[in-house]
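U., I forgot to send this yesterday:
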Amino acid sequence: MNQARQRGIFSRLLRSIFMIFTGYFALLGILVTTVSLLIAVGIYRKLNSVEGLGDKSKKLVVPTEINESVLKITIDRGIVSESLSDRQKIFSQIFSNELPISIDELKAVLRHAGTDKRVKAVLLDIESGGADFVTTSALRRALLDFRKTEKPLYVHLNEADTLLYYLASTATKINLAPVSGLTLPGPAFQLTYFGGALKKLGVELEVVRAGKFKSAMEPFVLDAPSAETIEMYGAIESSLRGTLVDGIAESRKKTKEEVNAWLKRSLFTSPQSLQNGLVDRLGYLPQFVEDVKTETKAQNIIEYKKYRSATKDMEDSDKAPKMGGGDEPSIAYIEASGEIAMDASNDGDGKITPKNLIKELKWARERDAVKAVVFRIDSPGGSALASDLIWDEVRKLCEKKPVVVSMGAVAASGGYYIAAPAAMIVAEPTTITGSIGVIGAAPKALQVAEKWGISFHLITQSDRKSYLNLGSKSSETDKQILGESIDETYNSFVNKVATGRKQDPQHIFAIAQGRVYTGLEASKIGLVDKLGGKDEAIREAELLAKFDPEKMNKMERFEDEDENLLDCLVDGSAWDCIKDIRSGAMIGLRKSQISSQNASLRKPIETLATLEAILNDSTVLAYWPGSVNWSPGKGR
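Result:
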C-alpha cells in the first residue's frame, strides 16, 4: 500500500514537472514567436516608410507639388557630421522616429535644390538643435553655395544662440518669433577648478608634464587658471570670435565693428534684434511661410523629407563617402572619432582603438584599387601608446599611398599625433588642434588619514613605493624618473611631427609646449596645410591620386565581415547573431558611431540586447516592454 502510494505520488510529481516544463517552453515559444512577429511586422512597415529604402526596382514618381515650390527644411534635432547608412536608417526608424539629421544629406539637398528649376527658394526653419562649430560651418558653406545660385534663402528663428545665428546670417531674409530674442555672447570658455575642494578632502594630484601649456590637470591642482592657460584660451577665443564676426558681417552687410558690438552686448529681445538690424522681420512661422510663397510666386511648400525621397538620384553627385567594392580605382575614407584608448571594452562607445583602426588602415594600404585615402579625425587624444601604434600604421600607409587628413571639431594631442605623417592636413578654421605635449598625474590622499581616519599601507620591494602608495608623496627620485619618461614621450612626439610636417624639430618644439590652437592659427605656423572641410580634403585626395576632381570618383569604406545583422542571419545562425549583439558589431553600427550625437541609434541596440538576454536566461518567464534594466525572474 505504501509502495503503491509512493508510486502514485511520484507519478503525479512527474506529470506536474512535465506540465510545468511544457507550459514553460510553450510560454517561451509564444514569447519568442510574438517578439519575432512584432519585429518582422515592424521591419516590413518601416521599410516602406524609410526614405529611399523602398522597392529599388520601381521607378520613383516625382510628386507634382514640387513644381513651383519652396523647399522647407526644418532643423529640430542635432546635426551629425556623417551620413547614416541604409542599415542604420532601417534599424533606427524601426525603433525610433528621431533619426539625426546628416550634414552630408543636407548638403546634397541644397546642391540639388540650387540647380532644380522647380525649386524657387529654400526656407530654413530652425526650431532647435544644432551642432558643433565645425559641422555648423560646413552647413553654413553649403547655404552660401546655395545663395550663389541667386535663389533666395529664408530663415525662421524661434530663438537663437551664437552658432545658430551664425548659420542663419546667410539668409536673404531672417524672421524671428515676436516674443523671443537672441543670445549672442560669442565664444565663451567656462573653466572650473577643484584644487581647493580636493585639498579639503585630503586629496592632491602630483602632476608631471612636458609643455608649459599642457593644462589638462590644472583644474584638479589649482584654484584659478595659470597665466599660460589664460593666454592660450584668450588666443583661441579671439580666433573663433574673429571667424564669427567676419562671417556675420559679410553675410549681413554690416561692418565688423557693428557685429563685434552685437556680440559684446550679447542679449537682444525680438524688437531690439529688429531695431539693430540682426533680423529683417518679426512674425510667426505660418504667416512667414505664406509671405515667402507670395514673394517667390511659388505654388507649394515641399518638405525636406518628401523632396529628398523624390530626388534620391541627387546622391549620385554627392561627394559624401559611399560603400563600394570591385576593382575600380577609388578613394578610401577612414574615420577615427572619439578618445584614443588601448581597449574600449570596459568604457563602451566612442573610442578609437589600435585593434579596430589598424584593420582599416591596413585594408587601405593593401587594397590595390585604393589610390589615395581621406583620414577623418575627430579626437581629443588619449593613450600615448595607442596613439603611437596607430601612428606607425598611418606612417606605413603614407609610404605607399597619399593620405589627406580631414580634421573635425577637434584633433588635438593624440588626435594630432596620428595625423602627423599625412601628405596633407586640412582643418576647419574653428578646429581645435595642436596640444603637442605630454602630461601624467598620480592622485595622492595625503590628508585622508588625518581627516577621515583612512590609512594606506603598501607592501612591495619596489624602489618606487612612495610613488605607488596612495598615502605618501612621491620622492624626488620618483619624480625624476617619471619626468624622464614624460620627456622621452614628448621628444618622440615632437620629432614625429617634425618628420611628418617636414620641418625643423626646433620649430616644432617652439610652437608645441602642449599649446592648443584653432585651425586658423595652426595654418599660420605650419601644423595645418589648408583650411576647409571634408569636401576640400576629398578634392585634395583626388588630385593626389591623379583623378579628375570634376568627375564623380568612386569612394569606399572598410566593411568588416559579418558586421551587420542581416549578413549574420544569412551566413550564420540566428542564435549566434543574437548572442553577438552585445559586441557592438551588429546592424553595421561601429561603437564610434553610437555617440551622444547619435543617441537615437541606441534604442535598437538596447532592444535587441534585451531580446538576447531574455533568450539566454532560463529564469525569465515574462517581459514587460519599456525597460532594458530588468531583473531575471522578476518579469518587470
